[in-house]
Amino acid sequence: MTLHSIDQRLRQLQLRTRYPVEHLLAGEYRSVFKGRGMDFDEICAYHPGDEVRSIDWNVTARTGRPYIKRYIEERELAVWLVVDVSASCRIAAPGRTKWDAMHELAALVAISAIHNHDRVGMILCSDRVEQILQPRKGRQHALRLLNDLLAVEPRSPGSDPAPALDALLHMARRRVLVLMLSDFLFDLDREQLGPVAFRHDLVGIAVNHPSEIEPPPCGLAAVRDSETGEAFVADFGHTGRDVCKDVFDQRRRRLRDEFSAVRADLLELDTRASCAEELARFFRHRLRRTADETGG
């Protein structure tokens, strides 16, 4: 993209997301994603006058000396966007593309977080880490983040989130909110997701084009894998389309199972849907579920 087209697209994103962020998502985001209030800092020796309720009885029993857990106040939230920039996410398609929807989702989340005075960072990944932007506050930082997303030129067409997730684990020491934006057209299992989901609040957002969910009827067609470059002839007749739909459904069921296994959320989004409305619906569902689990 040229600098002019990037600037024009960025202005369009700001205009498109302004109303939803201010009127539809602001309260929902604030209700669902909050700072932890008090965040664990360290284990230290007990001294007379320390709060007895802070004693860590496990460490005390192991050492034979009293130790306490020390906490620091942590009101704000750090948000990491892990965005898949592989070729399959950036492929051209009729109507709204996956890349368009991912831009808008990133803008809605980033600007909602900034409005809530949270810090936002971003990892752009293919089958390697393409770029890292450390979490910061402020509207200018959010605009820079979105600008870099629009301007990215990946070095690799492939897709593998493992390097990005490993990098995140090394950088984010305290609990953060991690949103993975991808089409998830790759193998992903609980072994990869587990360490991130255990330490952080992990949410996957799977964006797919209608032609992937239900291929159009066009008989035999020459197709090319956007990531490997492999060309072949595919059957998009009645039987072939049924096979494609079954394969996609099986892949999506497995993805749900893997996220569920590590107690992480997964939002599935069709590019025809409203990103703001789908996010708001997801936030409300998560808030209701949390209230049911905690009894309030």
Give a short summary of the structure.
Helices cover 46% and strands 24% of the residues.
> Biggest sheet: strands, sense, closure?
6 strands, mixed
Low-confidence stretches: none
Report the total helices: 9
Second rung of CATH, namely the architecture of the largest domain: 3-Layer(aba) Sandwich
How many structural domains?
Answer: 2
User: What pattern of helices and strands is seen along the backbone?
Assistant: HEHEEHEEHHEHEHEEHEH
* Count of individual beta strands: 10
Mean pLDDT: 86
What spatial form do the alpha-carbon principal axes imply?
Answer: globular
Helix content: 40-55%
Which CATH class of the largest domain applies here? Answer: Alpha Beta
Walk me through what this model shows.
The chain has 296 residues and is of the alpha/beta class. The protein folds into 2 domains: 3-35 and 76-294, Rossmann fold; 39-73, no CATH class. It is built from 9 helices and 10 strands. It has helices at 3-32, 57-63, 98-115, 139-151, 162-171, 190-199, 210-213, 238-261, 275-294, and strands at 37-45, 67-74, 78-84, 119-125, 129-136, 177-182, 201-208, 219-224, 231-236, 265-270. The strands form 3 sheets. The protein has a 6-stranded mixed sheet with strand order 5-4-3-6-7-10, sandwiched between helices. Strands 1-2 form a two-stranded antiparallel ribbon. The protein has a two-stranded antiparallel sheet with strand order 8-9. The protein is globular. The termini are far apart.
